[in-house]
Write a structure and sequence with these properties.
The chain is mainly beta and 835 residues long. It is 6% helix and 51% strand. The strands form nine sheets. It has a 22-stranded antiparallel barrel. A five-stranded mixed sheet has the order 2-1-5-9-8, with helices on one face. A five-stranded mixed sheet has the order 12-17-18-15-16. A hairpin with a 2-residue loop joins strand 26 and strand 27. It is found in: Cell outer membrane.
Amino acid sequence: MSHRRHRKTLSPFLHKRLVSAPLGAIVLGLRGVPAALVFAGLAAAPAGYAAGVADVAASTPASAQKTYAVPAGSLGGALAEFASQAGVTVQLDSRLVDGMRSQGIKGSFTPREGFSTLLSGTGLEIVESSPGIFLVRPAPARSSADVVVPDASTLPAVKVSANAGKDGADSLPVGYVATHSSSALKSDASILETPVSVSVVTRDQMTQQNAQTLNAAVRYTSGVTPETRGGVATRYDLLTVRGFDADTYWNGLKLLGNGQYAVPQMDTYLMDRIEVLKGPVSVLYGQAAAGGVLDQESKMPTRVPLHELGVEFGNYGHKQATFDFSGPLDADSRYLYRLTGIARAEDGQVNTTRNERIAIAPSFTWRPDDKTSLTLMALYQRDPRSTSYGSVPPQGSSLPSPFGPLPSDFYDGDAGFERFSRTQESVGYKFERKLDPNWTVRSNGRYFHLGQDYASVYGSGLEADNRTLDRYSIGSTDQLNTIALDNQIEGKFSTGSLKHTVLAGFDYQHVAGTSALGYGSAPALDILAPDYYQAIPDFARTVTQIRNNQYGLYAQDQMRMGHVVLTLGAREDWSNTSTRDVTDNTLIKQSARAFTKRAGLSYVFDSGIAPYASYTESFSPQIGTDAGGKPFDPERARQYEIGVKFQPANYDALLTLALFDVKRKNLLTPDGNNPNFQSQVGESRSRGVEIEAKANLTDSLNLTASYTYIDAKYLKDNSGLEGKHLASVPANQASAWAYYTQHRGPFAGLSAGAGVRYTGQTYSYDNDYKLSSFVLVDATLRYDLGHIAPRLKGSEIYVNAQNLLNKRYVASCYYTTWCAFGYGRQVFAGANYRW
């Protein structure tokens, strides 16, 4: 029996290897929400328009003129952006501007002039009720025909999104377009001025597409190949970015695993946005995969009261209940809370399997003053069961079989032996303090515990009769404790005509885990007459303890002079790892040190076009030694990227184009002279093009579209892969999604969305054959019941279908004997109630 056929099911780690001015306060006069509720968020003004950080408390005199640039978008958003740049407060009843659009403004104005220009032709006026506080109200009417103020009973329901900025403050609904990112530069940075590719999936997009996993959330994101293990591996977030593995983060801190099967996974219902930072990112994040970072940002406490309950049902026996409560605990909004939870149970797509989850995430924010914020966060997530982590053989899935195609719910395991149980618990904090208008300190920290028990039987290839599936067994019991800390100081100052935004920080990651892992034999399975309850022999386990510490110091300077933005960054990391085999009483200690850097140059035209070029690096420590006993050096990756971003003045949109070249070095591959050892001569490369567009074209229509071309190959390898394409990475991908809401007329309250996802041909692991391309269709309908009767205000019903046409397809063949079917049709119907 060959070594390759006896090889265990790949762990997620091994599988991946293979394949700032404050926002002006807005007062919402919502139905049922007092008009005196003020919420203010801290978010940087579009870079290049303002230098330094203004304090909310320092109001701007009504007679002072300065230059403003407010992009087109919703009128409410334009008023908020202008107030942000002016450092003043604007108050309004949001129903007055619901559905209104603004063309934005550019030029020099006093705050009063700017507000008046934005409100021109709307029937609304601005008055300064007190120094630095402006009120929007209906303009006095000379006759009944001059101004028509809608009756509150006939107004469309006001939709408030609790989207969180970097500090968890409230913000207006953003639709699909995010103009700032907290992950790309570890500060609230303008995406337009950031010289790297970053895509943001907003809460609105996730809700409208009903994305229930991280994979589902990024299906329409350029450069991302989601669900590389198809519909079987729901317990892990297996995907690639630009052809390579990417790391998952939560609130800016890495979700640390043990390199085998103990891998954290967060539920997307708990998240407000997902940022996809593409390419090597070690300069800010330390040891990192070459694909980049997927940072999941939690729902944070809000100043506006929020109450939501939801229920959902679907095929595969899907049942789900959710709740989300938030708001102030005192009249001054110094104490805020949020409590979010979800419970889900459903059958897995794979026969005999099931998914179950319960999660609750409480958080609390204390704001003793306008300059200080401390948020405490906790999580309890229990996954008692999860669908199979197995596979299907190529014959009958991607290759012909004399017995015809396999069913898409084919199960290669044993129902009496299969188990998966995972518990995740976490506590953490986010702290920010403005030392003065130009200097800010931040500190983020988290403790995370994961306990897991996993056992499975998996297929290892069909015998010559094409119906007998050889199988093996595996079991792993894990306990994992991790700590992640990140401390930063950010300052803004000028040296002559050069304006600087500097960031310096120290971060620390600690992993302490124990794993009892073993492999054994299992009876073969007749795929034509499967017996899923056979006697599985017990097997010995090896107990391993791993301890890892990483320390990093980093510095970054974003320099602006006129239209030019230069970003430079550098970092030094120290890592040490000890691996103890408790069973054999052996200990291996390794240490590594790495210096990484990044440089990027952007030119931001007044038209909103910003061409850029950048270079960035990453490193990732590797455990083990070569044939001479020398510890392996860290894997290294570097990326060259050029592109252009466009944020038009007349539309709320962001369009990006990027060309990239990523190269990984020091990859482990069999030693040509000592086959029982590995050497570090392996190299791989990915190059390609990404195009992405996100737009809120009107108050009714949201769009997102993308196209990706990737050419990913092994450049050097001793196992026969040299010159071959990376498995599971399509050369071409494209997607488009549109969502329309009818605000007026007889169909007011009705929303409809539809999307198409195209995935081109991919290669099998050894490139012996290609997998067919496929096209998937998604769709949704939603209806606000408040338009039927006032007593139903806040109630919503919806239906969502993913892979609407139930396309049968093979997502990947990620190893010689392992393939994976993609998700079949999933249909969800549910109801939400908000008050």
